[in-house]
Amino acid sequence: MKIKKVLNNNVVIAQNDNEETILMGLGLGFGKKAGEVVEDKKIEKIFALKVTSEQQNFSELLSEIPSGIVELSILTLAKAKTKFDKTISDTVLVAFADHLNAAIIREKDNITIKNFLLWDIKRFFPEEFALCLETLQKVQEKLNISLPEDEAGFLAMHIVNGTLGSGHEYATELTKLMEEILTTLKYTLQVNFNEQDIYFQRFITHLKFFTERILSNTKSDESTDEDLFLLITRKYPRAYIGTKKVSEFLKQTRSYEVSQNEQIYMTVHLARILEKIQD
After folding, report:
1. Could you tell me which residue, 270 or 169, shows the higher pLDDT?
2. CB within 8 A of 233, min separation 6: which ones?
């Protein structure tokens, strides 16, 4: 690979055939110029973006973003990949860095944007949110600029978006749908969920995958065990009332038919939560 642009001593943009790549490594760009060959042994982190006619290239997109912000964004996303053990689209780097840079500019201009999904983001994506709070802390340490936690919420959604492989609107829709389901359950079952309870947290994890299937209209391909379905619904009648209400809600609002297998999983999760509340 050859260097296309040096962002700072540790970050360069390189060209490899039809692919532009952001490379990071200690001293990787020190004393280097465009056209020189990258020292492979110094490469520590790689973010690649295949350039298409619909996309601008990395150098254009990042030309107005300070290199320190790009480097901090790379470190955050690299940590997210390791910590969450998930594939995160490299294209998120540009959106993440651009948002972080814009947030800093807004703060300098005393402009604040309220994140109306902040509470839900904290509930549904606590690890991504915590990681982005660390990023804001580093901005404070390096630039002496204090960003509101609303921005950590926005940045967390970029990470969620990267794991879903869809647009930012998709991640927002996912969050809103999870909240709609929880609200339906809360009022149907007349309970206040303990969000620190391990069973509730496991249910939230299940709910994330469930809502992803709904938004992508992907059905469970597991065969249905009719006897098991009847056993679960009879054993946990109150929990099943909640599941049935959610199923009706999704059919009415999303035209999504909740399979019996999905109803079984949800009912079992709810039964555990309800048992814990009653204890």
Report:
1. 270
2. 240, 263, 267
